[in-house]
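Annotators were shown the component list below and the corresponding predicted structure, then asked to write short factual statements about the assembly.
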Amino acid sequence: MIDNKKKISIISFSGDFDKLVAAFTLATGSAAMNYEVNLFFTFWGLYVIKKKKGHDFTGKGMLARTFNFLMGGVNNVPLSRLNFCGISPKLMTALMKKRNVATLNELYKAAHDLGINFYACEMSMHILGLKLDDFDNNIKEVIGVPGFLKYSEGGDRIFI
Amino acid sequence: MARYKLDITKEHCPMTFVKTKVELAKLKQGDLLEVILQAGEPLENVPKSVIEQGDKILETNLIKDNIYTIFIEKN
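Structure shown to annotators:
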């Protein structure tokens, strides 16, 4: 094994299907190229790592619960363009399968298999009334800006 | 030493080298993995990824039009 691994840290801010595919493609590809990869989920990006993958009243407080219900989970992430009330991500996934390109769920599983570090943003979780237990069990840590700076130090930082 | 086989001829970037790396992670030191892959991106990126993580490419063979096999020894 080669020491002194290169590092890439990706801030997954957008909850859009296409941007998540881009973030996970870059993350898994980098990990397979022996990079240390950190994925920091903040704001809309948090919805992809929710345990409940569909619409569910998750969270604390009436407003946050309603908001989280409307947003849903990874099964409800919209396409950034031509979403057509949520039909387009399903059509896009079907097209990806037809063309033998990894779907968002496959990339997500690959990210876990490759040992990519998942971090959740403390401030966004607080706003949305979400707690660690609402997320995927593989979330390594809930962190803020200092934590992100610490873990991403010495590597490339990318915002998607 | 055990021998394993992986067919990634239908895969595209990044799953070509992602699947190879995930498969290699399951093997023990000295095990052999035969990967069947297409020319172009897979043939370029899979060996690069394998070498980056310290494993060894033993040989690369053309088996039919645009289809290759590479033999990898797990380090």
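Statements collected:
1. The beta strands of chain B are 3-7, 32-38, 56-64, 67-73.
2. Chain B has a mean pLDDT of 96.
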